[in-house]
Design brief:
There is one protein chain. The relative contact order is 0.19. The protein has helices at 4-12, 14-45, 70-82, 129-133, 154-157, 171-177, 229-232, 244-256, 272-279, 281-315, 317-325, 330-367, 376-400, 405-410, and strands at 56-63, 87-93, 104-107, 118-124, 137-140, 149-150, 166-170, 187-188, 196-202, 220-223, 225-226, 234-239, 262-264, 270-271. The chain is α+β, with helices and mostly antiparallel strands. The mean pLDDT is 84. It is 51% helix and 15% strand. Strands 3, 4, 5, 7, 8, 9 and 10 form a seven-stranded mixed sheet that branches.
């Protein structure tokens, strides 16, 4: 079928054609960015944390005033928690994934660097840290017993008193610091002017909050520094999934029995799965909202195409009848309207792709969104081409059904 007659007809209906083109362009731009954002939110919701999430419960406790025996009481708490029936392991930790509150530090590769290369989150670990959280080493080794030291209370002293000679980092951080290299034995600088040597690499370990954006979610460092309960008040207890509620209540009782000069924060004492669900409630809601917007836009665009096509069929009844009388088949009439819609959709999609990139640039600047991958453009184009053909089919079929006698009666 020749395109020239179609273009000639569209030039005679510039306003209606322009409206459809603009509608398709806006829909294409919004759909492409929305699909990208939905995929990003879904990726966040289903991220791999590296933890045995379905086996962990968190308890948070803080002292009333100073506690000179906080380190000894931490050891007593851990012994009591590990003695609870059904408990596999227990540890004290300065921060909890999905807990929002985060300890962070700049990381440099050279002592003389004026600015840090990146920002990483810092986990302080005692002996049962790895076992309790269920973390997996993919390279190197765990800390040796003689490498652990008591953590300095940063809230009182303000900084670590000397170097932390060894650390375990995540695979994501290793790839960022030492791309394409074996990170074991490599050194970096954080918390002091003395180097820290990498002895192990974790497959995954997410940070407690969204600081660092999507690329920095797994920039995590583990130091062999034993924290006490007063640093952040976090105990993690690992048990079997079916016994979490039972163990949580027993652990609460154990900590309450440890003295009335401490407060157990009930609202923060719960399973890690619950913490993750609340942490991702925002991205989950945003994905549903954007999905609803996409469906609504596609529906509005389809109705616009159907309305315009129906209007044109009504306006061209005589023309269609004459073409049928001159020998045009139903298939030719049907293809005419479908080709016409394809031309309009193609123009709108081309403009929409440019607009999609413009919108993405604004989102990158204002909301730290990543660059829109190119493959979202053909996905949006195919979606709108298919939608256009489906929307125009019924009016086009009705046009193809106009009998040749219609032209005879109207001439």
């Amino acid at each position: 079928m020749e395109i020239r007659p179609i273009l000639s007809t569209l030039r005679r209906h510039k306003t209606a054609a322009a409206l459809i083109v603009v509608e398709i362009a806006l829909t294409c731009a919004i759909i492409c960015n929305s699909l990208f954002m939905i995929n990003d939110r879904i990726r966040q919701v289903f991220e791999v944390s590296g933890l045995a999430e379905d086996e962990l419960v968190r308890l948070q406790i803080v002292s009333i005033g100073d506690d000179p025996s906080q380190q000894a009481r931490t050891r007593t708490d851990l012994a009591a928690l590990r003695a609870i029936p059904g408990v596999k392991d227990a540890t004290v930790i300065n921060q909890v994934p999905y807990g929002w509150s985060s300890w962070n530090s700049g990381v440099r590769l050279k002592r003389e660097d004026q600015r840090p290369m990146l920002n990483a989150t810092i986990y302080l670990a005692e002996d049962q840290f790895m076992e309790t959280l269920g973390l997996k080493l993919v390279a190197g080794r765990d800390f040796n017993a003689d490498e652990y030291r008591e953590a300095v209370d940063l809230l009182d002293r303000g900084a670590v008193d000397d170097t932390v000679p060894v650390a375990i980092i995540t695979h994501a951080l290793a790839e960022r610091l030492f791309p394409g290299q074996d990170p074991i034995g490599k050194e970096f600088y954080s918390w002091s002017e003395s180097p820290t040597r990498v002895i192990g690499v974790l497959e995954h370990l997410v940070r407690p909050n969204t600081m660092g954006g999507p690329t920095g979610r797994e920039y995590s460092i583990v130091f062999p520094l034993r924290p006490h309960y007063n640093l952040a008040g976090n105990y993690l207890v690992r048990t079997s999934p079916e016994r979490r509620a039972e163990v949580l209540e027993a652990a609460k009782k154990v900590l309450r029995d440890g003295g009335n000069d401490r407060i157990l924060l009930e609202e923060n004492s719960r399973t890690l799965e619950e913490m993750r669900r609340d942490f991702h409630s925002g991205p989950r809601s945003m994905a549903w909202l954007l999905g609803t917007v996409c469906v609504a836009l596609l529906l509005i665009t389809a109705l616009g195409i159907i309305g315009l096509a129906s209007f044109w069929v009504q306006q061209r009844t005589k023309q269609i009848g004459i073409r049928r009388a001159l020998g045009a088949t139903r298939g030719q009439v049907l293809r005419y309207f479908q080709t016409e819609n394809f031309v309009l959709a193609s123009i709108g999609i081309a403009l929409g792709m440019l607009l999609a990139f413009a919108i993405n640039q604004v989102l990158m600047g204002k909301y730290d969104l990543a660059r829109l991958p190119l493959y979202y453009l053909p996905v949006g184009a195919l979606l709108l081409w298919g939608l256009g053909q489906l929307a125009v089919y019924a009016p086009a079929k009705r046009a193809a059904s106009i009998p040749p006698a219609t032209a005879t009666r109207s001439v």
